[in-house]
Write a structure and sequence with these properties.
Strand content: 5-15%
Largest sheet: 3 strands, antiparallel
Structural class: mainly beta
Shape: elongated
Radius of gyration: 23 Å
Order of helices and strands: EHEE
Number of helices: 1
Number of strands: 3
Strand order of the largest sheet: 2-1-3
Distance between the termini: 50 Å
Length: 96
């Protein structure tokens, strides 16, 4: 039996309308849907259900690009200029 790759929790797809894509597919342009929730192709309102040119584009995650300021190279909290955490001895007896 062949080894299967692990299923990604937030695997998603977007629908890419072909050159003759219908209005239903074009209305979903740049919308990412979880794979389990994505509609089957051809879509319900497809103009050419027998020769639908639409395809799925797969993504590992539903999110796009960096979401936090620290991911973009900025400060995580620009209003806090001083470090308030104390890095002394820990609370446990085994901490150095």
């Amino acid at each position: 039996m062949a080894a299967r790759s692990p299923r990604l929790r937030f695997h998603c797809v977007s629908i890419v309308a072909g050159a003759r894509g219908c209005a239903a597919a074009k209305s979903l342009k740049d919308v990412r849907l979880l794979s389990a929730e994505a509609p089957r192709l051809p879509l319900a309102g497809c103009d050419h259900p027998d020769a639908c040119p639409c395809i799925y584009r797969h993504f590992d995650d539903r999110r796009r690009g960096p979401r936090r300021a620290a991911d973009e190279g900025g400060l995580a909290d620009p209003w806090s200029a001083t470090e308030r955490r104390h890095f002394g001895r820990g609370r446990r007896a085994t901490d150095p």
